[in-house]
């Protein structure tokens, strides 16, 4: 491979020479998909979160482990992909995540892998040079876990090839959700996923993956039939229910960045059917009744029915109370009526519609792409229905934010149905028996957002079993994301990453 560009850069006080790997790689014009500002400005109407501005000081960092200057020239020459050092043209875009609050975290280098062999080489290089390595797929980590100061960010975004045969999707770990849906739509197929079009399939799947199909078909991770993963020793594994089933089950729910770098997934797809939608809204005076009724709906609606409850602080100090519902039967009339009967009060605003698979994907995602957003968020997994005092506390937490002028939402996603069942092949996603996940979300900066999230946690403490690993928070015990599966996950970590190579404040140990 020819070395077409050389420039001297200073990294960690050591002057090294950067060598690029080819003509097109030396222009520095390649942008990171999640780092560019897409055109859509429509706020997603569902589990996705409002437009925001950057928030408080990032805490993503790793111990500085570099002892001698790594030989970047030799490493870069060995790759089909590309290495970005801080002085490389394109580094600024290459290291960005979806949330701009992590822009100030500057990895020692960004490696954009072009194939699984590059992933292996990057892991081996980082291990040899005692660099902490974090994988990045879609870059949507809530805590910036896919970037790292004094470490190597391994971007698998270019591994996004897809193929489909006999109901099974094979997809590279770097694919984004909209691209997956658009591809599957050609075959009349779909996949249960989250709604944000730019979320990466890898991060979403490894942490579970909740969305409108959760109750009918389970979590995204439940549909995985096999995965190709490269572990800390640089070895490639193809794991499934019948091959290294302990690693397979652990990857299905442990969250990204813990046990290895997944390079591709095989998923059992679902039919891409038309979907019935409802949107129901009530005045704030009915808020407690709506929460009670929604809890009954989450407990006893048919598995074809799903609906998430949004309690939003409005800028005038009041609350907006609404449920966005979906029926996989194609008609949401009965589901909407059932929810209204559980609430005991007719909705003040009511819309029903039917959408094709791809129309639904675009509607839920606010388009085909999503602009970068700054936010602070957290979660609680609800063990079961909240009692009256807890509901009052939850509503009070959002109301306090509304009164303080803090943009804030509590978004409650139901579990149950197929998500309550252990999938074939096993999974260590810990919340099979839970009722719902409540997300505390704020676009505010610093303290106001932190206060809202802390108030939310406090309000539902008696009903909370822990947190959802795809909604990581700083300062929270890692074990709180794993419920009763902590010991099993730690055993898998010890077996497949005995030196704790994949190590950040958010990983298992
Ligand atoms: C706007 C928005 C909407 C969202 N909507 C939903 C939703 O509807 N449902 C839902 O369940 N979640 C949702 N999420 C949460 C989302 O699922 C998680 O943030 C997820 O981890 C993001 O995956 P990613 O690949 O985009 O992120 P990344 O930041 O790239 O990765 C997340 C974690 O996985 C690791 N990782 C990345 N790639 C790999 C790999 N190939 N192998 C191993 N580890 C890897 C990273 O190191 C990091 O720790 C949403 C997030 C945002 C920001």
Automatic annotation (TrEMBL):
Entry-linked InterPro entries: BBE (IPR012951), FAD-bd_PCMH (IPR016166), FAD-bd_PCMH-like_sf (IPR036318), FAD-bd_PCMH_sub1 (IPR016167), FAD-bd_PCMH_sub2 (IPR016169), FAD-linked_Oxidoreductase (IPR050416), Oxid_FAD_bind_N (IPR006094), Oxy_OxRdtase_FAD_BS (IPR006093)
Domain named FAD-binding PCMH-type: residues: 103-272
Protein's UniProt name: FAD/FMN-containing dehydrogenase
Family of the protein in this entry: Belongs to the oxygen-dependent FAD-linked oxidoreductase family.
Gene3D superfamilies, alphabetized: 3.30.465.10, 3.40.462.20, Uridine Diphospho-n-acetylenolpyruvylglucosamine Reductase, domain 2 (3.30.43.10)
PROSITE patterns in the cross-refs: FAD_PCMH (PS51387), OX2_COVAL_FAD (PS00862), PROKAR_LIPOPROTEIN (PS51257)
Pfam family, one: BBE
Annotated SUPFAM superfamilies: FAD-binding/transporter-associated domain-like (SSF56176)
Keyword entries, A-Z: FAD, Flavoprotein, Oxidoreductase
Region Disordered: start-end pairs: 21-68
Keyword Flavoprotein among UniProt keywords: yes
Cofactor(s) needed: FAD
Flavoprotein recorded as keyword: yes
Biased composition (Low complexity): 27-40, 48-68
